[in-house]
Amino acid sequence: MTSSRRPQPPLARAGLDRAGAERATAGLIESARADAATRVLVIHGDRAPLAGGGAGLRWVSPQAVAEGGTWAFLGRESAADGRAAVLAAVFAGDAQTPLATSDGWGSLRAIGGALSAHDAGAFVEALSLGRWLLEAPHCPACGALTRVAAAGWSRSCPSCGREHFPRTDPAVIVAVTSAADPDRLLLGSNAMWGTDRFSCFAGFVEAGESIESTVVREVREEAGIEVADLRYRGSQAWPYPRSLMLGFLATAVDDSAARPDGEEIVEVRWFGRDEIGRGLAGEGDLKLPGPSSIAHSLISDWHAGRA
User: Fold this and answer.
1) Rounded CA separation 72/152 (Å)
2) What is the number of alpha carbons within 13 Å of residue 277 lying toward its C-beta?
3) Cα 139 to chain centroid, rounded
4) Across residues 59-82, what is the average pLDDT?
5) Contact criterion met (CB below 8 Å) for 49 and 101
6) CA pseudo-torsion sign 295, 14, 66, 28
7) Could you report the per-residue pLDDT of 133-172, keeping only the tens digit for each?
8) Is pLDDT at 3 greater than 70 in this prediction?
9) C-alpha of 250 from chain center
10) Could you tell me how far CA 151 lies from the centroid of its own chain?
């Protein structure tokens, strides 16, 4: 066992001052776009431009961005960086590439775990907000086309007067440990995945349901077992499409009861600590979640004895 200190999930690290009080400032986007010191993160579908051989994100001035994007205010840099405004310029995935970059583009799920706290926090904020701006232009109450307000953080309906905000759907994700052997972890394989790919159990919180009840229900439905000793381990946004993932560790009541539901989960399996270690190292046949995901954090923390 190693230190009990746990790192934050990779997309839970805040990198910017969101400066929420400024969002009501008239003309904020326009004034920031006119300022050469403003830093812009361009989003194309679910990808951002890379720099440094792909080690980080490429930040540009407003003047470097192609026309046709949807703009939003992400916040401000630290005082050490002059409190420069930070904007997102968001383009649909099927739009023409809005920025030329020699280092290519990377999706959040592919590169988020390797980014600095600053870049990871900005990327998940920009993608989460940007997807809502592009995908929810109409009022859900009356169907009218809404107007973007609050520097990208709300939409106002000119027809019925309602105000709408970015939607976040809470979901739980659970790593299940053995009741009999602390060196065993239960994972499941989704029907949509390939052979030998396993992860934690996950599902959305239903209407009128507590998070704790969701954990118990989802594991029972997907893996056929009851769990106890629920321990909250952290959270992170996951904008695929708009989730807030709430991570838990739980203990099986009866290891032998584990069964896949046969629809969403086609296989459940108990893994030993050594086998998990090989999977995390990319050795052997076991394929585990990528380092951008909170599932990876739950599994790696358990393996390292931080659970």
Assistant:
1) 4
2) 8
3) 25
4) 94
5) yes
6) positive
7) 999 999 999 999 999 999 999 999 999 999 999 999 999 9
8) no
9) 22
10) 22
**How far is residue 118's CA from residue 163's CA, in Å, rounded to a whole number?**
30
In whole numbers, what is the pLDDT of the chain averaged over residues? 94
Q: Please, which residues bridge with residue 197 across strands? A: 287
pLDDT at res. 307: 62
Closest CA to 84 of 42, 40, 118: 40
Round to whole Å and give the CA distance between 74 and 306: 33
At residue 1, the pLDDT reads: 35
Q: What one-letter code names the amino acid at 307?
A: A
Q: Please give the average per-residue pLDDT across 216-234, as a whole number.
A: 97
The token pair that represents 264 in the structure block: 């969403």
pTM of the shown model: 0.92
| Cβ density class 96-111: b for 16+ within 10 Å, e for less | eebbeeeeebbbbbeb
* Amino acid present at 30: E
Q: Is 207 exposed, middle or buried (0-12, 13-18, 19+ CB in 10 A)?
A: exposed
For residue 200, give the nearest of 230, 234, 177 by alpha carbon.
177
Length of the chain in residues, anyone? 307
